[in-house]
Design a protein that fits this description.
The chain is mainly alpha-helical and 187 residues long. The protein contains 6 helices and no strands.
Amino acid sequence: MDVPITMFQDVEDLKAAVARLTAQLGALTSEREEEPGEASAEEEETAGGEAAEEEAEEEGQYPPFILLLDPPEYDDELRALIEWVEGVLVPGYLAEPSADARWCHLWWEHMVAIARLHALWLAWQELTDPASCGYTGPSTWHRDHLDPALRELRGSTGPFSGCTKGEHQIDHRMPSLVPSAWSQAED
C-alpha cells in the first residue's frame, strides 16, 4: 500500500501539536502548584509579552483562505493543495468520472474548484486531528464538508460541467453580461 508523503507530514504536524500541548499543560500545572499571591510587575509584564507572542503565533498558525493569498504564498498553498487532492482525495474518494459525477483532471485551473477544495482541505486538517476535535471529527468532516463539496463540484451545474474525459473547458462557466435594470431607457 502506497502512503502519500503528505500523510507523513500530517503525522509530524500531529507530533508537534502534541508536544506543544504537553508543554502548555506542564506550564499550566506548574503555575497551579505555586503559592497563590500577587505577581510582581516584572512577572505581569513578562506574562503580557508571552500572551502577545502566543496570540501572534496562533494567528500565524492557521493558513488564510487561498483566494486571499498573493504569490508566492498562493503558489505554495496551491502546491500543497494539489498534493492533498491528488494524494488523498482523488485516490480515496473519487470514482471514475461520469455524466452524473464529473471531475476535471485540470481542476486547479477552475477557481471555484480551488476555493471549494481548499476549504475542504482546511476542514480536513482540523477535523482529522483528535487533539482538537476528538474521534468524531472525521465523521463530521465527511458529513458536513466532503459530501456537500463533492455534490457541488461534481454536479451537472458545477465547475466541471463542461469538462469531459477527453476535453477540458476552462471558460464554460463564465457568465454572460446581464443587462442592468438601472441602465434601461425609460419609455
